[in-house]
Amino acid sequence: MAVPMTPDQWLKALRAEGVTDIVEMPGWRSNNRNHKGAWGSVHAAMIHHTGGEGAALPGIVFNGRDDLPGPLCHDYLTRTGRLYLVGNGRANHAGTVAKNAYDAVLNERSAHPAPDAAEPIDGNAVSYGLECENTGAVGRDWPAVQYYTAVRVQAARCRFHGWTADSVWAHKEATRRKPVDPRIDMAKFRRDVAERLKHPASWSPPTTPTTPTKPAPTLASLDARVTALEKKVK
Ligand SMILES: [Zn+2]
């Protein structure tokens, strides 16, 4: 049982964990669906792939799509390892989830069973959601900088709440509706999160690159992008 982190707590935890290439999207601190349903207690940190790639994605996950209002996650991670802070509060990322999958993260079991068909749990109320830029196509790689930043992001949440790596789950582990979301080995991913949690947050092994390669976009350019997308969505 955990009270969701505040925006300031989240930023501090990310920076402590060595996530340096961060973009705070304008309005992210109050971007949520709390008027539509519960948010918290939180018990899990979910990882997703976007199923598409490109510069429009930050705006889409912030605002949503025609069929699904945003935010569509809490954080969005590009293939270059840049983390966009998208929402704070209830977000449309998990939908309903299977009870056996949820029980596994809630109780931090080492076994994460294939999800039941029935989905009685409101996943958006109980789980953070990290979206990662990847088409989801067979063979589409996850660049090391993206993968290991995802490890840091999920480790930061676990560390803050005192969770083990078995509080991390994939969308594909939570529902049969998303059988390949994301197309990564979750046993390995949880092992990598668990390894980080054995060390201080500042731990930075040479094999896990995080260095930003490009300057962050200005808030003005982000505003313009979000506005353009809003028009598209409406
Ligand atoms: Zn997903």
UniProtKB/TrEMBL annotation:
BP GO annotations: peptidoglycan catabolic process
Residue span of region Disordered: 195-221
Taxonomy, superkingdom: Bacteria
Record InterPro entries: Amidase/PGRP_sf, Amidase_domain
Residue span, N-acetylmuramoyl-L-alanine amidase domain: 28-183
Residue intervals passing through the bilayer: none
Compositional bias segments (type: Pro residues): 206-215
Gene Ontology MF terms: N-acetylmuramoyl-L-alanine amidase activity
Protein name: N-acetylmuramoyl-L-alanine amidase
Native species: Streptomyces paludis
